[in-house]
Design a protein that fits this description.
- The protein is an alpha+beta fold.
- It contains 6 helices and 7 strands; from the N terminus they run H-H-H-E-H-E-E-H-E-E-H-E-E.
- The chain has a domain at about 100-223: Heat Shock Protein 90.
- The chain is globular and about 75 Å long.
Length: about 220
């Protein structure tokens, strides 16, 4: 009887792990296809040949964004790559929204070679631009911080001085908006699936006082 119970427990755990992997893969599969990255590479080459510097720079930034996000189909990248992805995204947004916002980085060098699920920070800064800085009449500011906390976890804080909102108990969307792409729901679900409930998104926001989003992940050094 004891051996049968143990077998059932092991089978149940295996099923849970299979489900976890399937859910994570399904969420990650929303990353844009390879052909778009390859097309951008061609545009970059054409712009360089014609000495169109602005087009060359923005196509290079977007191609770099997709190169990192695709990352040979792997779900885990280094934090330094995640930061590069964010910088490429923000470069493109700054071209689009001239003088609308500025960004400051404060990233502990000790975490740069640690592992992170890819495309975790970018949706948060996109949310600041899309919602926090909507219809503001002053310069938007985004502070991106990354450090090691007292429990030896890695903690990111993305803070903006946008319009803010009313949030109840760190509440985030419970259902995925099909128009949101890599939205907050997606980020939160992937964090929980990969690292556990302890590592879900945390919010602090109030109207006209900006928003702070906190992301905590385990300290895992990349091989």
């Amino acid at each position: 009887m004891a051996s049968e119970i143990q077998l059932l427990i092991e089978r149940n755990n295996a099923e849970k792990e299979s489900k976890r992997i399937a859910e994570l893969s399904a969420l990650q599969a929303q990353i844009n296809p390879h052909f778009l990255y390859n097309t951008l590479d061609i545009i970059n080459c054409m712009a360089k040949l014609r000495e169109e510097r602005d087009i060359e720079d923005i196509s290079f930034a977007l191609a770099s964004f997709f190169r990192i996000s695709l990352h040979k189909g792997e779900n885990i990248i280094k934090i330094r790559e995640e930061i590069e992805l964010v910088k490429n995204f923000l470069y493109i947004q700054n071209v689009r929204f001239v003088n609308r916002f500025t960004v400051y980085y404060d990233i502990d060098d000790r975490i740069l070679d640690c592992e992170i699920i890819k495309i975790i920070l970018q949706p948060i800064v996109e949310n600041s631009i899309k919602h926090g800085f909507n219809n503001i009449d002053y310069l938007g500011i985004i502070n991106i911080k990354g450090k090691i906390d007292e429990n030896h976890d890695i903690v990111f804080e993305i803070e903006d001085n946008g319009v803010g909102c009313t949030i109840e108990d760190d509440k985030i969307p419970q259902k995925k908006d099909p128009l949101s792409g890599y939205g907050l729901y997606n980020v939160n679900e992937r964090l929980i699936i990969e690292y556990g409930e302890k590592y879900r998104l945390r919010f602090s926001s109030s109207p006209h006082k900006g928003t702070v989003v906190t992301i905590k992940i385990p300290f895992i050094k990349s091989n």
